[in-house]
Amino acid sequence: MGWIFVASLVIALALVHKPLGDYIHRVYTTTKHNGVERFLYRLVGVQPDAEQKWGVYARGVLAFSVISLLALYGLQRLQDKLFLSLGFAPVPDHIAWNTAVSFVTNTNWQAYSGESTMGHLVQMSGLAVQNFVSAAVGMAVAIALVRGFARRGSDTLGNFWVDLVRGTIRVLLPLAFVGALVLVAGGLVQNFVGPHEITALTGGPQNLTGGPVASQEVIKELGTNGGGFYNTNSAHPFENATSWTNWFEIFLILLIPFALPRTFGKMVGQPRQGYAILAVMGIIALAGITLTNVFELGGDATVPQAVGAAMEGKDVRFGVANSATFAAATTLTSTGAVNSFHDSYTPIGGMMTLFNMMLGEVAPGGVGAGLYGMLVLAVITVFVAGLMVGRTPEYLGKKIGSREIKLASMYFLVTPILVLAGTAVAMGNEAGLAAMLNSGPHGFSEILYAFTSASNNNGSAFGGVTVNTPWYDVALGLCMLLGRFLPIIFVLALAGSLARQKPAPESAGTLPTHRPQFVGMVVGVTLILVALTFLPALALGPLAEGLLS
Amino acid sequence: MERMPSWIRLHLAALRALLVLTAVTGVIYPLAVTGVAQALFTGQANGSLVEKDGKVVGSALIGQSFEGHREYFQSRPSAAGDGYDMLSTAASNLGPEDVVDVLPVPGAKDDEGDPDEGRQSLLTQVCARSKAIGELEGVSGARPYCTSDGVGAVLKVFPAVGAPTRAVSVNQACPSRPFVAEYQGVRVECGRPGEDYAAGRTVPVRGNVSDVEVPADAVTASGSGLDPHISLAYAELQARRVAEERGVDVGRVRQLIGEHTTGRALGFMGEPAVNVLELNLALDKE
Asked: Which positions, given as ranges, span the membrane (chain A) (predicted)?
């Protein structure tokens, strides 16, 4: 049954990726602004037809993110003074900082417990807004990079404000609206009720919670954000009521990331280049999902053997297989929502979720972030291939010269440095070590997972680690910030230098980048780079745990 | 306006963009969704509430604890607060190799001055639940890696590498009798509370239990801490006790289980699941 579940997702995505990718292509290439958008641009005070150089575009991204961060921090700190706070106190400063960073960077790491910390206003007008706009920022950056490949001898990459508004209004909002209603039909709540006590069947008290959950849940998945309305995220029945809402949420997670390669292919005028990128993403994703399923269903560890199945931390309506599929989807993208708790996974099943993130979340990755990450890997592959045959590397007619490969390399190096240095610092000081729930290799895995998740802007956790301490809130907050914005700056700089080039005509010596050979090479480069970087760390954590048992 | 430095103008534009987009996605959108959802799907949007005698007794989607009520079907173990607490939803987050307990030291106090309770490993929690459910339902609660007294069957062997010279059944506090007398020729000791066995090699012992009668979902905590369902197997196991307690025919109870079982959606999504609250409500109506 688990295999039919995966197959049905593949079929559904195969059916929609083309129309959606074409639609997104139209959204970002049309020169027409509709009435609502013109009104919005007037309110914002920007010229929608002004083209921006990469530096201006990047400054727009950063300015918008800084303001978002400050506003979200302020909203949390002042929630008791505003309405719909449900009587909750202001969010403590370190948690507010961590949460603000986390939602602005599309990470949605949860250092807080939704039902006991955040009022409805913060959730709906703070957190959910960032779910929309951080995803729109990711898409905007990806589109800017694609324009870098598509344009010839151009100084500019488009207009950030236009890309931001269009991504939000034309792509995310309509999909979210429809999706939210589908989820409500499945049983998700959508109201403004606060916690209230009722008398349960046996006569004892039970607190029921409410909130605008469905409208936030849908964009949490669609925007690959992952921050749950409640503490137990998509395991909570009010966030994920049935086995079919579970299917639908996984579908939403994968929807836009798998449609963007089509958009890319159309924008560069060669749809087959998009299919090549899609094939790389699809191969890695299927392998990741399959292996996570195999290891979880195998249940190879002492407790799952005693239990008879890896059911700890999983709900009955999902079962082991569909939980594993969700876990793989959420870590292959930058979502980080969970419908089961990875900390209780089998050692190797849990390692798969870690490994998925370590791939850099490119298969298919976060909304926008997955595409630009994968294109950077394609650039690196072209460069490696060029070295092998002794030709100037080119991708889509653009020369990958010293400036380009330096930017691509720096992009790639950011997250491993943050993950490994962060884990090392945490393991080397008292405040870091104090947070482990489990001891031995599993405790190390918890810390490694936390830094991998933060630096890759994923947001899922080996939940046992106690991260709502000031030390972790600050350290992981920094990892999230640097892990998001350094790569974005490198990508936009790369886009700027690619856009300036006039494409070289194709010759007999040009490496074709749409054939299976190239697809295989990108897959290989991705896996080898990641394995070389992270294998020692994995050996100390999940591999050691799996082998010792 | 025009005299302002460009970086200030940039951040003002950013602020205005955020405010405008907040109005659209953070106010208009959720209100619109709420409006339509309340109109079209009133029941679901308000939490799928279930009533008994005109009074709300819970939500069909949220599990409740029926502990201590033998006449009701029991839910799964829950790590949410003291169990099924919607204000502190949680999973246990204990790892798959969490097998060694910290035994309570008799007479010792913890940080808050309460008697020391030690810490039960996930394995011991599973074994203890299995034993208790076995006793409640009148079946065997035995499982692999569990002792007959309901803790994890785990040895610490010293030295960690090489031929063993000492073996301790770490989860069985003295003076209990270890679940095996010997390990590779070495006599097995009982665990002494307060002693640090961390240096030894951990050896979980599978034992030779072949017939496990208590299902997996009955001995594990769910992810949400609010799991409203149990497996068909666990419902079957409880049917006889519930029928006896209520003095109704076990066939009728089985029929009600069938009526409150959700199959796989479209035949392939998720797992069949029995809704405990709805089933218990139906029993009350009999």
From this structure: 56-75, 132-150, 171-193, 244-263, 275-295, 369-389, 410-428, 474-498, 518-539
- Dihedral sign computed on CA atoms, order B22, B26, B32, B33: positive
SS (H, E, C) chain B: CCCCCHHHHHHHHHHHHHHHHHHHHHHHHHHHHHHHHHHHCHHHHCCCEEEECCEEEEECCCCCCCCCCCCCCCCCCCCCCCCCCCCCCCCCCCCCCCCCCECCCCCCECCCCCECCCECCHHHHHHHHHHHHHHHHCCCCCCCCECCCCCECEEEEECCCCCCCEEEEEEEECCCCCCCCEECCEEEEEECCCCCCCCCEEEECCCCCCCCCCCHHHCCCCCCCCCCEECHHHHHHHHHHHHHHHCCCHHHHHHHHHHCEECCECCCECCCEEEHHHHHHHHHHC
Tokens representing A77 are 């700190």
Facing B269 at nearest CB: one of A190, A308, A322: A322
Give the nearest partner residue to B219 out of A307, A310, A316, using CB atoms.
A307
Residue of A nearest to B126 (CA): A307
What's the CA gap between A135 and A139, in Å, rounded?
6
- Cα separation of B265 and A146, whole Å? 40
| C-beta separation of A479 from A455 below 8 A | yes
Question: CB–CB of B37 and A190 under 8 A?
Answer: yes
For residue range A500-535, list pLDDT tens digits in order.
999 888 887 788 999 999 999 999 999 999 888 999
Backbone phi and psi for residue B115, each to the nearest 5 degrees, phi listed first = -55, 140
CA–CA separation, B89 vs B204, rounded Å? Answer: 31
Interface mutation target, options A76, A130, A166, A303, chain B, most CBs of B under 10 Å: A303
Per-residue pLDDT reduced to its tens digit, B20-57: 999 999 999 999 999 999 999 999 999 999 999 999 99
Q: Are the Cβ atoms of B226 and A46 closer than 8 angstroms?
A: no
Q: Given an 8 Å threshold on Cβ–Cβ distance, is B97 in contact with A232?
A: no
Say how far apart CA B11 and CA B36 lie, in whole Å.
36
Taking CB atoms and an 8 Å limit, are B20 and A323 in contact across chains?
A: no
Are A191 and B45 in contact (CB < 8 Å)? yes
Contact A237/B61, CB-based, under 8 Å?
A: yes
Chain A hits for B245, CB-CB cut-off 8 Å, are none
**Partner-chain contact A302 B96, CB within 8 Å:** yes
CA angle B246, B247, B248 (to 5 degrees): 95
* Closest Cβ–Cβ partner in B25, B56, B96 for A345: B96
pTM: 0.96
- Assess contact for B168 and B188: CB atoms under 8 A: yes
CB B180 within 8 A of CB B205: yes
